[in-house]
Amino acid sequence: MRFGVVPELLEFDRHAILAGEIWRLWTCHLVHYSTRHALIDLATAAAACSVALPVLGWRRLCLAVALTAPLIAGGLLLLAPDLIYYRGASGMAVMLVVLAACTLWRQAGIRARTALALLGVALAVKIGAEALGYTTGWSDLPADVHVAWQAHLLGVSSAALTIKILAVR
Q1: Phi and psi based region of residue 48 (left: phi greater than 0; alpha: psi -120 to 50; beta: remaining)
Q2: Cβ neighbours of residue 62 under 8 Å, at least 6 residues apart?
Q3: What pTM was computed for the model?
Q4: pLDDT score at 1
Q5: What 3-state DSSP class applies to 86?
Q6: Are 124 and 152 in contact (CB under 8 A)?
Q7: What is the Cα–Cα distance from 123 to 125, expressed in whole angstroms?
Q8: What percent of the chain has pLDDT over 70?
Q9: Is-annotated flag, keyword Transmembrane (predicted)?
Q10: Those residues with Cβ within 8 angstroms of residue 128's Cβ, 6 or more apart along the chain or in another chain
Q11: Residue 136's pLDDT is what?
């Protein structure tokens, strides 16, 4: 199911990107398949940003978002050759959640670190389940759209790279 002209100009469209429309590597994270889909991604990203912002500051947080957006979309080009279209910010939201967790890790006590580690395991199980085809249906995706679990995995990888590049402590 497809919605409107503007989202189609911004979405991840494999053929359009390979034909030179590289802005889609950034803009595909701005368009979604439904309002619920957008709200879930936005709420997750906003919560994670509120945790990471005091440690990273606006400049480094914005830099992380600007640099990882094309990494995630570019990764989809390489790792998901059957993925023709993609819309959503869940990969970015996962990157921000992992980034937020890493900012908390250094100042956390043993109980908080245990909770963060369990959240990491839960995220790994979620991504694994999505890779096997299990989804919750919370995001209200159209019937012909499947969860791009690779975007979530790339979000984790992008967070690790961001932590290294930005020297997050």
Answers
A1: alpha
A2: none
A3: 0.88
A4: 45
A5: strand
A6: no
A7: 5
A8: 95
A9: yes
A10: none
A11: 72
**Cβ-proximal residues to 168 (8 Å cutoff; 6+ apart), any chain:** 55, 56, 60, 99, 102, 103, 162
Mean pLDDT of the chain: 91
Q: What is the mean pLDDT of residues 44-69?
A: 94
Neighbours of 57 (CB within 10 A): 12
Decide: 13 and 21 in contact? Cβ < 8 Å: yes
How far is residue 91 CA from its own chain's centroid? 1
The C-alpha torsion from 130 through 136 and 139 to 144, rounded to 10°, is 70
Distance separating alpha carbons of residues 89 and 27, to the nearest angstrom: 10
**Look-up of token digits 């606006």:** 58
98, 156 Cβ separation under 8 angstroms:
yes
Backbone phi and psi for residue 13, each to the nearest 5 degrees, phi listed first:
-125, 105
Which residue is listed with tokens 């990471």? 52
What pLDDT digit, counting tens, does each position of 106-146 carry?
A: 889 999 999 999 999 999 999 999 889 887 766 677 777 77
pLDDT of residue 61: 94
